[in-house]
Predict the structure of CD209 antigen-like protein E.
Amino acid sequence: MFVIINKHTLYLQVDLMIFSELSLIDICVFWWCLSGGSRCLVLITVGLGLICVLLLVFIILQHITITAERDLIKSYKNTVEEFNQTINSLQDSYTDLTQNKIKLESKVRSLSWFFMSTELKSWSDSRQYCRDRGADLVIINTEEKQRFISSLVSERVWIGLSDTENEGSMKWVDNSPLNQGFWFKGEPNNFGGDEDCIELNPEKHNLNNWNDRSCSDTRKGICEK
């Protein structure tokens, strides 16, 4: 059939079968648009505009949501990375502390403590005094230790060095050979042929204060434990 719209002279051919598939409301809206003319087009245009605005708002909201999620994920990754770096740093610190602890324990085990006999005795009796107390006459094998022992005493003392077994072959009480000596000028000289035991004289320069003496002379002994 043909419907004539006077204002626009628009001819529409409508198949009757279409009406059979439309609801009553759809038919009423259709006839209202046909009778309304330009008003219907305006409403359709406004409706499409609203749809476009809603679609744009939806797209903007989606973009904001995606951006926020992306920023959140990035922030999470940064936090995880910082956390891992902190863990690694703590592990390195723990390793360093453990190594320092081991070194410190090793140094503590290697530390010695010193004490001096209370009586004047021969070299051998002074050594026995130390051994009776779980120690021995001091062994001085470093410059640092030599300085320390020299600062520790205020009088001549026996140290754990002698050449009683073989003249000229100095050995410590642990039977190790002398590698570095801190002799006073001209010493050792074995004066009189019986100077086989070594004393430390703090009145001399602290790096040149060893002297050989007769082992029967009496001195206090410096013990090391």
About this structure: The longest strand covers residues 157-162. The radius of gyration is 53 Å.
